[in-house]
Amino acid sequence: MKEKKEKITKFTIRELGGAFGDWGTLIPFIIGYISISGLNPSGIFLCLGITNIVLGIRYNLPLPVQPQKSIGAIAISEKWEPNMICDYSYLFWCIYSFFHGYSTYFRTYF
Hints:
This protein is mainly α.
């Protein structure tokens, strides 16, 4: 088995700037979700905050915004209902989790 090297990073102002780098892309989608699709703002920001904290602790990375842009563009342009947005988000999460587990399995055992 491969040994894991512990990576220690210092939190600097550049790290803080990088953590908020994708917010400029994500905020217009959040505004569209709230105003056009009718999603609850507290639910969006609560889930987004929890996701960012978990990803930061587990992977030491911010939330990737690119997959959310594809769902957001379609959902806003076609005026999806909130439950449909949640269903597709859950479906994307299942697909990403499957491929993450699949790739981790092959990196570990092959």
